[in-house]
Write a structure and sequence with these properties.
five-stranded antiparallel sheet, 12 strands, five-stranded mixed sheet, single chain, rod-shaped, alpha+beta
């Protein structure tokens, strides 16, 4: 592309420049010829006027002009001889005098037929030796006579050719300079395109962080800027795909791990029951453990089903009362908290409305409170607050339990992740509660954040947009 533009632009410039040189050289030639023409006409007029006066004086002395024409013309011819110009005199259509500087051509008709008028003819002879010719007839009673003046154009033509050569030589230099600057200019113009090509090749090879430097505010810079935006979007998409793939792989690994432990235990106790001799009490304990692990698997299956249903985003939205939400949550979680003698305190200064699905919001609240119960000690207190903050309704769940390290907080929303694996398994959890909570929060366009400190407790903050 760059080569095509370079050669087309260069050819157009050469044609234009040579055309301008030809036009200028022709104008210069015409100006020079016009000046020579005016000079030849003036000298022809002076010589003709003086020659007529000499002829009249010669007739008055009783001499014939034809016989003495050489003597009359000698002075004028000698005056013009040094400049390469010539004179000739015609009488009745025939030359009766030709100076040494007069160079006639065989194919020319001398003298030109003027019809014995006093008009002067000016023309140029382009033979081996270019010259300008001026011919004019004399007035009566000398109308049979005519004077031819020839002006040498060698110097004029040579000067014009020299000027023309200088112009064309200058044109060649200008063309070379133009070629150099055009090539450099095209390099500058096409540099962003080369950078786009090389950067796109790097991105195609997996280097998604490659970018194009943007200079100026022209159209090509705009293309480079948009390319960088596109590359940034591609990089973000690739990163999200990688993160999604890693999360899916981690989910599969964790899920396999979670299945392996209870299945191994169930298989081991079932094999023990089948092959070992045991009392009824031992058999009852084994079946109780098998039922407990089956219950864990059942709970895990229900939670996975909840997560699958939440991905559909087909919930029926309506205005949900926070007061009603707290009341339903307290009914469900009261017995769960009472097992560890934990008190649940709900603080609601006034009733607020949240746009969403009451069933999903209740799952969200109960999962957070259940996690707080698991993390709390005997006879602790869990506080649930609701208040307005700018353009949001905020719900907080605060416990004074074991807490978490700061580096653990970013991972707690991942499926099957446990802060304390031993405690979670003992409590029957599968590590899916907060993953479900996060999905519900996303569906409701809300935000969920955690503040926690080991040995102090955890504060979960939910921010819902105002209904």
């Amino acid at each position: 592309m760059k080569k095509k533009i370079f050669f087309v632009a260069l050819i157009l410039f050469i044609v234009f420049l040579n055309s301008m040189i030809l036009i200028v050289s022709n104008v210069i030639l015409k100006d020079k010829l016009s000046a020579v023409r005016d000079k030849c006409l003036a000298e022809h007029y002076v010589i003709a006027s003086s020659l007529i006066g000499d002829m009249q004086a010669l007739e008055q002395r009783g001499n014939h002009v034809e016989e003495n024409i050489d003597n009359l013309m000698h002075t004028y011819s000698r005056y013009l001889q040094g400049r390469g110009n010539g004179l000739a005199v015609a009488f009745s259509g025939e030359w009766i005098y030709e100076s040494s500087g007069f160079a006639s051509e065989e194919n020319m008709v001398f003298p030109p037929d003027t019809g014995y008028s006093q008009e002067r003819l000016v023309y140029m002879q382009n033979g081996n030796r270019p010259f300008l010719c001026v011919y004019g007839s004399f007035p009566a009673p000398w109308q049979d006579y005519g004077l031819m003046y020839t002006g040498n154009l060698d110097d004029i033509i040579q000067s014009w050719r020299y000027t023309k050569n200088i112009l064309f030589l200058t044109g060649v230099v200008v063309i070379l300079m133009m070629s150099f600057f055009l090539f450099q200019f095209l390099n500058i113009i096409f540099r962003p395109l080369r950078q786009i090509s090389s950067t796109s090749a790097k991105i195609a090879n997996g280097s998604y962080g490659s970018r194009i430097p943007v200079y100026g505010k022209d159209e090509i810079s705009g293309v480079a800027h948009n390319f960088n935006l596109m590359a940034e979007q591609i990089e973000n998409q690739i990163r999200q795909l990688k993160e999604g793939a890693e999360q899916k792989q981690q989910f599969i690994d964790n899920f396999s791990h979670e299945l392996r432990i209870p299945l191994t235990a169930i298989y081991g106790y079932a094999e023990y029951i089948q092959k070992a001799l045991m009392s009824e009490e031992e058999r009852y304990e084994c079946t109780q453990f098998i039922m407990s692990e089956c219950s864990r698997l059942q709970n895990m299956a229900y939670q996975l089903l909840d997560m699958a249903l939440l991905r559909r985003e087909d919930m029926k939205e309506k205005n949900c009362s926070v007061k009603e939400l707290f009341a339903e949550s307290e009914k469900i979680m009261y017995m769960r908290a009472a097992e560890k003698k934990i008190s649940l305190t709900y603080v609601l200064p006034q009733n607020y409305m949240i746009r969403g699905n009451m069933e999903q919001l209740l799952i969200l609240m109960n999962n957070l409170i259940d996690n707080a119960v698991k993390a709390s000690r005997q006879e602790d207190e869990i506080c649930i607050y609701a208040y307005a903050e700018e353009s949001a309704v905020v719900v907080e769940v605060e416990d004074h339990g074991t807490g978490m390290e700061i580096e653990q907080i970013p991972h707690i929303k991942e499926a099957f992740y446990r802060v304390d694996k031993a405690r979670s398994r003992a409590a029957g959890g599968a590590g899916l509660g907060l993953a479900i909570c996060e999905r519900i929060v996303q569906i409701h366009h809300a935000d969920m954040s955690f503040i926690s400190e080991p040995g102090v407790g955890t504060l979960v903050k939910l921010s819902f947009p105002v209904s």
